[in-house]
């Protein structure tokens, strides 16, 4: 769903202490990027490279300039700045006691650009607003699977229907690990190549187990067994055992899967009677934590074998 200035006011008005000054008829303008802009140079007439697609934050310094700048020059600069297509809105920060510059209000009214103010100081407003926009506008997808936090590592368990994903997650819960999502896993691509996994609101804390039906994980296992979100750092694919399929034996290869253009390690685990999948996933998570710190067990073992052969 598109984020408009009206949506921003509705969803974050109280949190960010936002108030609309002018531009009631232009609240349908869309906010398309999470980055913010401080238009200092644009206010003095230099608009080359101006990032009009971003929300414009007018801090204390910019407001002081608007209050003292020559009216004619300021009006011309504002007219140029506000004429850019796609500009969502302007927000005056730290504006609890400061008087809103008349020229700025008149220019926004004339160009149909929403002008808002916030009681928060500039640094707090920028931090809070940026976090909200990044969360709201980040690319996202929904995958079929189970997301479990194992030893602090977000593990996405996937496989065909009926392979045992939920049963495996149940065993992990019994062993003290934490459920994030069952059946549907919502994943966001956050800044820095981070994948963050959530559970869609209607399914939170619930799990469907064939033969048992829907269970409430929070009531059965306690509040410590659930987590709202976690970083997705490892993918496990459960597959039916096939004698003709070649599975990884040494661990020297490092296969990956790509989610929202981010590559994460993937491990294929064959499912057959007698295999303790929960233990295998625990070991996989611990091994991945070692890898993330630069230690590769398979490579270390392989190097020892090579060194031993050289000695002989």
CATH architecture of the largest domain: 3-Layer(aba) Sandwich
CATH H level, superfamily name of the largest domain? P-loop containing nucleotide triphosphate hydrolases
CATH topology of the largest domain: Rossmann fold
The coarse overall form would be elongated
Q: Extract low-pLDDT stretches.
A: none
Beta-strand share of residues: 25-35%
Distance between the termini: 67 Å
Query: How would you characterize the largest beta sheet?
Result: 5 strands, mixed
SSE succession: HEEHEHHEHEHEEHEEEEHEEEHH
Mean pLDDT figure:
91
Q: Which value, in Å, is the CA radius of gyration?
A: 27 Å
Helix content: 25-40%
List the total number of helices.
10
């Amino acid at each position: 769903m598109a984020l408009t200035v009206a949506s921003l006011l509705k969803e974050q008005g109280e949190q960010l202490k936002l108030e609309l000054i002018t531009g009631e008829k232009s609240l349908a303008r869309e906010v398309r990027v999470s980055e913010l802009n401080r238009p200092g140079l644009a206010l003095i007439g230099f608009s080359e490279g101006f990032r009009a697609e971003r929300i414009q934050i007018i801090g204390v310094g910019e407001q002081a300039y608007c209050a003292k700048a020559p009216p004619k020059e300021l009006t011309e600069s504002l007219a140029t700045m506000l004429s850019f297509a796609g500009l969502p809105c302007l927000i005056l920060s730290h504006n609890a006691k400061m008087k809103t510059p008349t020229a700025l209000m008149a220019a926004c009214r004339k160009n149909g650009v929403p002008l808002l103010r916030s009681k928060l100081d500039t640094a707090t407003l920028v931090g809070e607003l940026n976090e909200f926009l990044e969360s709201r506008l980040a690319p996202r997808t929904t995958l079929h699977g189970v997301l479990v936090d194992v030893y602090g590592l977000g593990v996405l368990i996937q496989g065909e229907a009926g392979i045992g994903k939920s049963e495996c997650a149940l065993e992990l819960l019994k062993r003290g690990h934490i459920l994030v999502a069952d059946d549907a896993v919502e994943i966001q691509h956050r800044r820095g190549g981070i994948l963050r996994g959530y559970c869609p609101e209607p399914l939170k804390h619930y799990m469907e187990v064939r033969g048992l039906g829907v269970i409430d994980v929070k009531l059965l296992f306690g509040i410590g067994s659930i987590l709202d979100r976690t970083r997705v750092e490892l993918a496990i694919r459960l597959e039916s055992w096939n004698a003709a399929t070649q599975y990884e034996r040494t661990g020297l290869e490092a296969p990956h899967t790509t989610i929202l253009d981010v590559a994460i390690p993937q491990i294929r685990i064959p499912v057959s009677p007698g295999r303790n999948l929960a233990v295998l996933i625990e070991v996989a998570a611990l091994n991945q934590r070692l890898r993330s710190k630069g230690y590769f067990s398979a490579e270390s073992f392989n190097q020892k074998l090579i060194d031993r052969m050289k000695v002989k």
